[in-house]
């Protein structure tokens, strides 16, 4: 139960930092209208962390309420992994659009790569659990 609480607090803090960086501290363009990649990288990183933790929290709550049995522990790591992977995919697609890669097959390749990474990580986890002695 405390893991949900800590994850909720972390999500709220990360969204507060994201709001501060985007609204007050960092602007992606300087006075000559040139893109500052340092600021963009910081905002992207904080966006991936905050959106990933939010999606991980939602995934863990839905997983606990509707999929797992009452006595089973929630799978928070699985939710965080999937949330960060989805958030990374979305941020990469938005950055590709920002830098001018607007062809539809680029977006499809990035989404397919994210899906393949999730399938690979899930299969590795299942293989480890099958090989573990009881």
Describe the model.
With 134 residues, this protein is an all-alpha fold. It has one domain (2-131). The protein has helices at 2-25, 37-67, 76-98, 104-131. α2 (37-67) packs antiparallel against α3 (76-98) and α3 packs antiparallel against α4. The protein is flat and about 60 Å long.
Q: Report the sheet with the most strands, covering strand number, pairing sense and barrel closure.
A: none
Mean pLDDT: 84
Helicity, in percent?
A: over 70%
β content, as a range?
A: under 5%
Number of DSSP-assigned strands: 0
- Note the overall shape: flat
Radius of gyration, in angstroms, nearest whole number? 18 Å
- Number of helical segments with 4 or more residues: 4
Q: Report the uncertain regions.
A: none
Q: How many structural domains?
A: 1
Taken in chain order, the helices and strands follow as: HHHH
Distance between the termini: 26 Å
Structural class, please?
A: mainly alpha
List keywords for this structure.
single chain, 134 residues, 4 helices
Furnish the topology, listing elements before pairings.
Elements: H1 2-25, H2 37-67, H3 76-98, H4 104-131
Helix pairs in contact: 1-2, 2-3, 3-4
């Amino acid at each position: 139960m405390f893991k949900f609480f800590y994850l909720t607090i972390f999500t709220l803090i990360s969204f507060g930092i994201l709001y501060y960086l985007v609204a007050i501290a960092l602007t992606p363009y300087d006075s000559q209208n040139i893109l500052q990649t340092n600021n963009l990288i910081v905002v992207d990183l904080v966006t991936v962390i905050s959106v990933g933790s939010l999606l991980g929290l939602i995934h863990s709550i839905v997983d606990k309420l509707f999929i797992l049995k009452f006595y089973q522990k929630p799978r928070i790591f699985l939710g965080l992994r999937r949330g960060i992977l989805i958030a990374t995919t979305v941020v990469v697609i938005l950055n590709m659009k920002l830098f001018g890669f607007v062809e539809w097959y680029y977006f499809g390749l990035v989404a397919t790569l994210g899906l393949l990474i999730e399938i690979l990580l899930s299969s590795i986890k299942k293989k480890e659990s099958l090989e573990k002695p009881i």
